[in-house]
Amino acid sequence: MTMLEVKNIYKSYGDVHILNGVSFTMKKDETKVIIGPSGTGKSTLLRCINQLSPPDKGQVWLNGEEITDPKSNINKMREKIGFVFQDFNLFNHLTALRNVSIGLEKVKKIEKEKAHKRAMQELTRVGLEAQAAQYPAQLSGGQKQRVGIARALAMDPDLILFDEPTSALDPELIGDVLDVMKSLCGKVAMLVVTHEMGFARNVADEIIFMEGGVIVEQGSPKEMFSNAKMARTREFLGRIGALYGEEGG
Amino acid sequence: MALETLIESLPSLFDGLGVTLLLTAFGIILGTILGILLATGRSYASRPIAYLILVYEKILRGIPLLVLLFLIYFGLPQIGINLDAFTAAIIGLGLRSSAYQAQIYRGAINSIPEGQIHAAYSLGMNKLKAIRHVIMPQMLRLSIPGWSNEFTILLKDTSFAFAIGVIELMRQGRYIQVRDPDLVLIVYVLIAVIFFALVFSTNKILRYIEKKYQMAGYQTEVHR
User: Which residues of A65-81 are buried (b: 16+ CB within 10 A; e: fewer)?
Assistant: First the structure.
């Protein structure tokens, strides 16, 4: 059953056309990875989906409700869509635990004690129960990102959008974050923008290759890596494979 | 005897000090509440409102406090608004402080990364909740050093209330001087010392508060 439907999304900033008609669908608990060169609109596409930057044209549907409808309650819809940022965006004034529980407390109106308990469960799930009382500035990049993932998970989303979640991390910290993401596979739908080809190849149900604001090609990792139809896809994957190593994640 | 006159006058100086402290407290409270509202409005309200706030700030930062106090106390009665001197002084001090404080809070808001509010929205918070639970707590913490400065200025500027007849510390000093001109130097030195001690001790307290509520990773301490 289709959970997310993205229909013909267009987005420009001034004269710069970022997205030029992007459409795809996602099923419940599916993992899709978006790859493509920098400046191709991958991150913008994620922001169009949860309306952080509303698209100029096109529609986004989640569970049969149109998010892009101006009459829809966007705040209610965003509760169902987690977002994991490249630069974490943890709340600097709150401990790791409170970062995870604040959405439960202030948005879902769950009482403090219950919210903290739930937040602790999510921190344990990402391996950070010992860091619960620490502030973002006291955590490593990899730990921050895992708190970011726990924060998204605590809201019980149907879908989590990952915007290059490992791009700001030191290489030796990437593995921990990718492991957490792998462990979520099949439990929640994930749409991941990444350059981690190993992750794309081993974890994704489908890979979407974007360039110039459109989807050039999409298919299973197997099709894309060994049998891509478009010359541009083969060229990109070849180049990026040589750069990062295909088994990198 | 001059010394006796001075000792007899001390209670009146303390009365004046009490009024000065009241002016400071009410003035800073008014300035802080208004300042926070103005800064939040300027950063997040619709464009016309933000523009009106900008005009308000420019005007209040552009006229001398003494002129403002005279306008409120002597000017307003002409259009039917009669305020006693104490109230007029608090309003004048508070309004002016609000314009300066708004700048402090706006600077703090601008230094909070935009991603913080994006993260708040992503959790399903509306604008008001994001401001209240994410922006405001960080803004207030970041504003403490600037606020301490503004507090110090306001405390000292309460002495302008003298000019519209509020019987605060300066006015009490002036009474003593009139009664016994020989005491002029010692009285104003005494008043200077009182102001200095007030500023010094409140700054110590505020520095403590600043440290206590500092966000991890935002320490302003320099290790030498």
Answer: eebbeeeeebbebbbbb
